[in-house]
Structure formats: C-alpha cells, structure tokens
Amino acid sequence: MPVASALGGIYLDGDQLVTASLTPLMHHEMVMSHENSDNLANSMMLAAPAARILPLWLSRYRNYNSSQWGAHSTYVPWELAQQYPHLIKVVDNLFVNPDLTDITQVYYGQFDISCNFGLHLYTRFLRKPLPLLAASKWKSSLGRMWRKILFGTPDIVCPEKSLF
C-alpha cells in the first residue's frame, strides 16, 4: 500500500487556498470536487488514513502517459467516483469555483466564493508573479481574500500601519 494512502491527509496545490473550515468534510473517507462536469480537481484533496479509493487510483497509473497527465489526474478519479460512490465524496465544485474559464473574475472582478471550501488560483497561467501586498489593495474578490488572510479584514487597510 502506498505511503500516502496509509497516512491520509490534505493535499493542496501551491496555488490552492482553503477558504473555509474543512471540519464538515472530515468524516468522509476521500473528498474531491469537480473542476468541470466530467472530471475532478486534484488541486485539493482530503483522504482518511488508508482511503480505499487511493490504491484503485494508483493502479490506473500503470499505463501513465506524461503527455496526458490530466487524464490520470482528473478524469480517472471521476470515473472511480462514479464506480465507487461510497468511497469518495464529490463536493460539487466547492474546491475549484470558479474554474479556469472564469478565474479572471476573481482577479479583476467580483466572484462570490462564500460557499467555497477552496479556491484554485491557476497561477501557472499568470503572465507575471502575483505580489501579495499589491494584490491586497485590489478591489476584487482576490483582493478581499488577501486582506482577510493578511490583515484579518476584507476591507482595504494600509499595510504599513498594520505591521505595528
């Protein structure tokens, strides 16, 4: 049995944010969310120790093709979730909402993430690095979130004064 399935835990991509307590999901053996209607997002996953779906998923990597990583990483878990719904809880798209097609709303506009458990920022598609302090002044959904994380309030604050 793979080490990961023996230990369990929470996996997050480097550009995945947790936006709400995960406690309501902790009683499930494995939790993932949709990214699109025909796949699951692998940017945020919760697994209990020895989650039974993980060895099934790992076995599908025997025919891994690195040029089609998304097939193994996102479509296979959705197929498994349909075959074994008692082994994996799918929470709609509440880890990845909005998906890549609408992520600009988070960066530059307003997108309601209040029902989300997470938010995938898809930073690999950004043309420039994201400066956190500058982003904290944005009047967008992401700006509000950064202010809440960095300063404890979604309101625009003077970062220099909050350091004292």
From TrEMBL:
InterPro entries: Nucleotide-diphossugar_trans. It comes from the Eukaryota. This is Glycosyltransferase family 32 protein. PANTHER family: ALPHA-1,4-N-ACETYLGLUCOSAMINYLTRANSFERASE, TRANSFERASE, PUTATIVE-RELATED.
